[in-house]
Fold each of these.
Amino acid sequence: MADKPDPQPVAPKASGRGGSAVLAIVVPALAAAAATFGGTFWSTRVVAARCGTHELVVSPTHVEPSKPPGPTLPLDAFLLNIPDTNRKPHPTKVTMAVEFADDSKVAKDEAALKALIPRLRDAVLGYLRRLTYEELSDPAASDQLRSELIFRVRAVGANGAERVLITDLVVQ
């Protein structure tokens, strides 16, 4: 029996579809990029609509100049112990100032400002003593802290108060 030579392997025919492998990679990548861009674009527009802003990018031509600060009344530092959820006390130091509007009657009268200091300290201290360590040390809660403080400052008679500036906050 004569050995038949092994058949030579036959090379596959070129079908002219050599670019299909590239397309198989590029098309899904483009689709993913488009979906990512579309999702990001849509979600930022929804957030902007809910927040009441129409433009997300702030350019120098659209920024309103902020007015200069009005008269500011610095308060002495508040030293207190703030408990955590386990009732462990944490020494805390809070220094703040109250900024008044320029046209405020209270801000123009220095004697009236000084007369307000004990009331302001009492209102601020009363609020701070109700907080827990977790509430006070959370950086995301600082706007809530300022809004509560300005509410209490105005409630004791400082009607011209525009903002509360927390100049120092140390919680151990």
Amino acid sequence: MKTIAVVVAVISAGALAGCGGRSAAQPAASAAAPSPTAVVSASPTLPPPDPPQTSTPQAVTVVSPKTLLGRSAATEQALKDGVSKVLDGVGAPTGGIKASGVYGSASRKDAIAFVAVTGHHPDPNEMLDAVESVASSKPAFHPVDPGALNGAARCTAASGGSTPQATCMWADSDSFGLIYFLYSTAANADRLLAQARGEIELLQ
């Protein structure tokens, strides 16, 4: 299995502030879909992968669940358009699996977006270090409980804008994922990361 190498984008608070409704200066009919701001624009350079083990099946898979943290798939087009570039910016290695989704509602201020990929990396913390190292804005991620699937996980509050947001990421030996908690504090994201990850990453 190939080492995970991803292009990561972190949603800016200012970009998603417009998801909840129109601006005062722009009527709803002509309002442009929000456009997330990427803070990482290059793939981290990681150590060579372990030798392929073609006879051993992958330990985990990632899925787009029907609901995430009790939220149904998002139906608001502006919200889905606003995060699409971010989700498209993370790719699975050859032979890997990618899953992504947007859930909840901007109008209810409970939206969540995620992207996850499978692929092998021997050191989860090294993987997260590599992602942080190419973040142009150097967000201050802090370690959080990765949950029952172990590995490593970190979260950070998004910078800029008046709408609270948080970004979390996890890595284990066979997967990497990002979860964006829109309209949420970092403390709330810290608490929910393990549960959300458990609904996305499944043991085979």
